[in-house]
Specification:
This protein has 191 residues and is α+β, with helices and mostly antiparallel strands. It has a domain of 88 residues: 2-Layer Sandwich (Alpha-Beta Plaits), CATH 3.30.70.3270. It has seven helices and three strands. A three-stranded antiparallel sheet has the order 1-2-3. The radius of gyration is 42 Å and the shape is elongated.
Length: 191
């Protein structure tokens, strides 16, 4: 009688809520038999064994060229040697200076002579795509007609909008007049 009680206890222990019941295990998504959309695999199905490093589909000549001739290493060394004999792209900035684009390329000035012998400006165009904001034009203007402002927003839809002629420059100056005057007053003690 003692043996029948121990068997009953063992069966009751197996039916605890933490152990899956055999009938509910078939509906679980974690069962490996129902992992594919086509259903469980056929009985006796096995995956092919993984190929070992010495059983690849390459020929012996390909393996020899890969391991003994080291084609990839020589290809990399060729790239390194090709770059080695080219001039360097970098400069040592404080000691070497890069080329500066010509400042005169941004401004086009045409002038004609007046009857009294003085010159008069007929065309004054600034291409803001070529301007490097060096301030040379402002310093060289004898009558302070050229003024740089703090406006650095030149986002336009077309490139032609960044080409300023005399009329656009005068309209731009009228729009920024209060800020230009304030900047001139602040800069006056230093001139």
């Amino acid at each position: 009688m003692a043996t029948s009680r121990s068997v009953a206890r063992l069966v009751a222990y197996r039916r605890s809520p933490f152990m899956p019941i055999g009938s509910t295990a078939n509906f679980s998504s974690s069962v490996s038999r129902a992992a594919t959309p086509a259903g469980p695999p056929q009985p006796g199905f096995r995956l092919p064994p993984p190929t070992r490093w010495d059983q690849g589909s390459e020929s012996s000549l390909d393996k020899a060229s890969k391991y003994f001739l080291m084609a990839e290493i020589f290809r990399g060394m060729y790239v390194v040697l090709e770059q080695f004999f080219r001039p360097p792209y970098t400069i040592f900035y404080p000691f070497e200076k890069g080329p500066i684009s010509p400042v005169s390329a941004a401004i086009t000035i045409e002038a004609e002579e007046r009857e009294d012998g003085s010159r008069r400006t007929t065309r004054y165009d600034i291409d803001m795509t070529k301007c490097i904001y060096c301030g040379y034009c402002q310093e060289s203007c004898p009558v302070d007609a050229i003024v740089e402002t703090s406006n650095a927003e030149y986002a336009t839809e077309t490139r032609e909008e960044l080409l300023y002629n005399k009329e656009k420059l005068l309209a731009n100056g009228d729009r920024w007049e209060p800020e230009i005057a304030a900047a001139a007053r602040a800069d006056a003690p230093y001139r």
